Structures are given as structure tokens and as C-alpha cells.
């Protein structure tokens, strides 16, 4: 009899959304022969509801897995899982507000990956920040095991809650190098020149404006920035302000992994502006693709790249990095990134670490 595992807190699989979904994709792929896995999915996203995927059973909840509804989405999933699962793996803290009650009525093993410090993000209102911080506190207090995906988060949990959490990062070896195809080159001729690249959600904490501002005064290098520009006023404003510069190319989200990999793996520099969260998926994927990385100077990014990338705090520092870069420094940066990624950010290693917890 295999141990029964319920994975809660993602939009679902097959993964087409973000980091937790990709993690779930590989947990099911690599561990379905060792464990009996059930994944909770949003029926709002998956219209044709497959009953199994990668050897795991899929259960559907009729709510969105993101935004405000995600709180109730997670809570419903948690209570449903109590009926059959031995271990509940909860990804993110929004539904953890119910854990004190769950622990009263059940002795199931609860593992929570607390993600980044979600309550610190600029985009949340004061009440939302309070709620997320309170959920984090309950998650840490009532989980049997807490997972941190970055040493900085691990240190925070230790300092804030006097608790030792398990450090398990994120895999990147699903990112593959692709040559730029003839069709893509015809569509985007500027790709034959040197270009920087960034893919992210268009949110203030990813320092999009600072990066675009830098490129607007540095015409010697193109930038391709892929993100959800239409989702907010902030995104639409930036797109209309910076979209007319010849060297700035702003693309809407690209869900075709092959095209994304073509654009990403052939860039001259990968610019990473995130200042929140833990181990960021797009960063470790860029590292695995052996790209030279210029990252925003925060502890998470430095820890992920083991202090071996180039770092910037503002537009002027980023501009200086561009002006000072040589082919030797870029090559050394790229080599260091790949060496770190192939050692630390492989899915086989990551999923084995979770298997040990289960």
C-alpha cells in the first residue's frame, strides 16, 4: 500500500501557470510510482476535466486557484483531503488559516511550503497583508513540517518563529536551449542582434519601470520583456510609455514553451528584477540555460545565485553594469550560474527531497 499524498494550493496540472504548478508536475511525474498522489485543480481553468495525469488522481474545485477565491479553494481542498490522505502538502499559506481547527479534528501529517513572504508584496492592501501574515504564522505553528525554498526564507522562519524549516529549492532542468527558428527570426528580425531578456508578471516589485527606464537611455542593447501588460493599469501605462522606444520590445505572455525557450536561451544577458519571494523559478531556469545574469540586489537573489551574478540597486547601477561588461565577465557569470543550477536546481534532487518528507 502506497502512502496517500494530497497536493493542495496550485491551479492544477498539467502545469500552465507558475512555479508551484511546475513543482506539482514533477512531483507527480517522479513520485507517482512511490506514492498514491491526488492533486486539487481549479475547474475554472481546466474545462475538460481529466481524471488522471502523470499517474496522479485529479480532483476539481469549482473556484479560482488565484486571487481572493484561492483562500476558499485551498480550505475546501484541505477539508476534502482529510477524508483520505495520509499527508497533505499545502503549497502557499492562504488556506492555512484553518489549520488550528484541522489539527483539533485530525492527526494527518501537514507539510506547508510557505513560498515567499507573500504578505510583503506591494500589490496587497493592508487588510490582505495582515491576513497573509496571520496565515503564515498559523501555517508555521500548526504544520508538522515547514518547507522554505530559499536560505533567506529559512533564516526568516528561524528568526521570526524559532523554528527549523526544511530547505528545498526548485528545479530548473526542464528549461532547454533552443536555436532561434527561421519563422521566429522572420517575425522578430531584431533577434539577430544582441538583446537582453526578462520574463515575469508585470508588478511593481519586479522593478519593471527601473529596468525599462535604463534601456530607454541605453539604445545600444535591445530588451525583450515578456509579461501580462494588459492585466493592470500599471502594465498598460508602462507599455504605452516605453513601447515606442526602438530597442524596447514588450511581448504579451508566451505560453508556448518552445518559443519562450528560443527567446530566452539566445539572449545576451538575462535581467532579473524581482525583489520579493524566495527562489524564483524564472531565475533558476535562466541559470540552468547558462545565461549571464544581472539580478536585483536583494538577499533572495544573491542566495539563489550564490553571490556570483552581477547585481544592481537602481537604474544607474544597471547602466554601469552595461557599460563595464566584457565578454570575459559575461562568460564567467554564465558558467558560474550553470554550475550552481546543475548542482542545486535539478528536479530529481528536489522531488527526492520531498519524497523523504513524505
What features would you describe in this structure?
With 358 residues, the chain is α/β, with parallel strands linked by helices. It folds into 2 domains: 4-168, Glycogen Phosphorylase B (Rossmann fold); 182-344, Glycogen Phosphorylase B (Rossmann fold, 3-Layer(aba) Sandwich), CATH 3.40.50. It has helices at residues 19-31, 69-81, 99-105, 126-142, 151-161, 182-187, 208-216, 233-242, 257-265, 281-288, 299-304, 315-324, 327-344, 347-357, and strands at 4-8, 36-42, 52-53, 56-61, 87-91, 109-113, 145-148, 166-167, 195-199, 222-226, 248-251, 269-272, 293-296, 310-312. The chain starts with a strand and ends with a helix.
Brief characterization of the structure:
The protein has 358 residues and is an alpha/beta fold.
What's the helix and strand layout?
Layout: E1 4-8, H1 19-31, E2 36-42, E3 52-53, E4 56-61, H2 69-81, E5 87-91, H3 99-105, E6 109-113, H4 126-142, E7 145-148, H5 151-161, E8 166-167, H6 182-187, E9 195-199, H7 208-216, E10 222-226, H8 233-242, E11 248-251, H9 257-265, E12 269-272, H10 281-288, E13 293-296, H11 299-304, E14 310-312, H12 315-324, H13 327-344, H14 347-357
Parallel strand pairs: 1-2, 1-5, 2-4, 5-6, 6-7, 7-8, 9-10, 9-12, 10-11, 12-13, 13-14
Antiparallel strand pairs: 3-4
Helix pairs in contact: 1-14, 7-12, 10-13
Amino acid at each position: 500500500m502506497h502512502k496517500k499524498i494530497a497536493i493542495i494550493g496550485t491551479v492544477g496540472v498539467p502545469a500552465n501557470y507558475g512555479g508551484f504548478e511546475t513543482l506539482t508536475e514533477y512531483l507527480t511525474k517522479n513520485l507517482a510510482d512511490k506514492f498514491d498522489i491526488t492533486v486539487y485543480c481549479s475547474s475554472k481553468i481546466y474545462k475538460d476535466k481529466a481524471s488522471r495525469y502523470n499517474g496522479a488522481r485529479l480532483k476539481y474545485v469549482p473556484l479560482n486557484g488565484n486571487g481572493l477565491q484561492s483562500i476558499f479553494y485551498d480550505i475546501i481542498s484541505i477539508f476534502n483531503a482529510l477524508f483520505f490522505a495520509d499527508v497533505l502538502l499545502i503549497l502557499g499559506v492562504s488556506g492555512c488559516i484553518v489549520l488550528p481547527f484541522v489539527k483539533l479534528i485530525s492527526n494527518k501529517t501537514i507539510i506547508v511550503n510557505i513560498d515567499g513572504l507573500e504578505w510583503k508584496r506591494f500589490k496587497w492592501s493592508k487588510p490582505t497583508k495582515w491576513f497573509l501574515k496571520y496565515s503564515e504564522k498559523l501555517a508555521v505553528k500548526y504544520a508538522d513540517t515547514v518547507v522554505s525554498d530559499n536560505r533567506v526564507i529559512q533564516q526568516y522562519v528561524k528568526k521570526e518563529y524559532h523554528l527549523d524549516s526544511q530547505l528545498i529549492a526548485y528545479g530548473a532542468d526542464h528549461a532547454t536551449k533552443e536555436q532561434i527558428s527561421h519563422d521566429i527570426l522572420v517575425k522578430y528580425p531584431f533577434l539577430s542582434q544582441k538583446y537582453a531578456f526578462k520574463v515575469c508578471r508585470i508588478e511593481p516589485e519586479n522593478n519593471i519601470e527601473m529596468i525599462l527606464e535604463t534601456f530607454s537611455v541605453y539604445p545600444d542593447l535591445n530588451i525583450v520583456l515578456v509579461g501580462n501588460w494588459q492585466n493592470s493599469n500599471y502594465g498598460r501605462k508602462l507599455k504605452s510609455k516605453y513601447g515606442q522606444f526602438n530597442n524596447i520590445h514588450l511581448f504579451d505572455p508566451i505560453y508556448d514553451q518552445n518559443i519562450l525557450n528560443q527567446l530566452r536561451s539566445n539572449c545576451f544577458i538575462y535581467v532579473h528584477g524581482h525583489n520579493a519571494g524566495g527562489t524564483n523559478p524564472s531565475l533558476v531556469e535562466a541559470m540552468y540555460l547558462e545565461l549571464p545574469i544581472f539580478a536585483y540586489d536583494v538577499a533572495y537573489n544573491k542566495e539563489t545565485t550564490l553571490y556570483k551574478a552581477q547585481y544592481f540597486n537602481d537604474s544607474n547601477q544597471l547602466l554601469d553594469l552595461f557599460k563595464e561588461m566584457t565578454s570575459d565577465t559575461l562568460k564567467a557569470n554564465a558558467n558560474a550560474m550553470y554550475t550552481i543550477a546543475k548542482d542545486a536546481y535539478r528536479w530529481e534532487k528536489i522531488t527526492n527531497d520531498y519524497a523523504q518528507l513524505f
